[in-house]
Amino acid sequence: MTDLFEKVTGSQDVFKKIASKIPGFRGYIERQNRRAADKLLRETVADRFEELYQRISAVQVDFVSRGEISYVDDLEKGALKVRTFIDKVRRAAYGYSGFFDAVKINEEELACVYQYDAAMLDLVDGVVSAIDNVEASVGADGLPAAIRNLTGKAQECLDVFNRRNEVMTQG
């Protein structure tokens, strides 16, 4: 989590480094850096989940080629939840609001939002495991349960995002 923030602050130009020494301006620069780190983290989350969405789509194609059409619709529920999550993450408000923005967010809330974004990245492993389980269960009795598990993991991702959104809109 702090690695991304340090990456952004380390790449500041000389003007920003000098301006960060001016009283009051430093907080503005830090918020801008946190906003950039938040955006970078969310783009990473969305990209990773895009890869997972492609894997789910490949499993659906495999179901069609095997003639197991009945599982395609079941798996589509999970795929739609992952796609919705990706779209929400890509279009989410940044972890900082400007002076004239309708939603204001302070430093504590900003840190909380950043933690939610990092938690979204941690969700990747659970979804990967669920997809692996679906792939391993093809042709077995446990396939419906594996698909339900994947759908549940995808819903968990949406729930984490919605809690993040609640932090952004509280105030």
Question: Tags for this entry?
Answer:
0% strand, mainly alpha, 171 residues, single chain, 81% helix
Describe the structure.
By secondary structure, the chain is mostly helical. It has one domain. It contains six helices and no strands. Helix 3 (25-66) runs antiparallel to helix 4, helix 3 (25-66) packs parallel to helix 5 (107-137) and helix 4 packs parallel to helix 6 (143-169). It is elongated.
Ranges where pLDDT stays below 50 over 5 or more residues in a row are 96-103
Question: How many whole angstroms does the radius of gyration measure?
Answer: 20 Å
Can you give the mean pLDDT?
Answer: 80
Question: What's the shape?
Answer: elongated
Q: How many H/I helices?
A: 6
Query: How many separate domains?
Result: 1
Euclidean distance between termini CA atoms: 24 Å
Residues in helices, as a percent range = over 70%
Largest sheet: none
> In what range is the share of β-strand residues?
under 5%
For the secondary structure, the number of strands is 0
Structure class: mainly alpha
Q: Helix and strand succession?
A: HHHHHH
SSE inventory with pairings:
Layout lengths: L1 H9 L3 H6 L5 H42 L2 H23 L15 H31 L5 H27 L2
Helix pairs in contact: 1-3, 3-4, 3-5, 4-6, 5-6
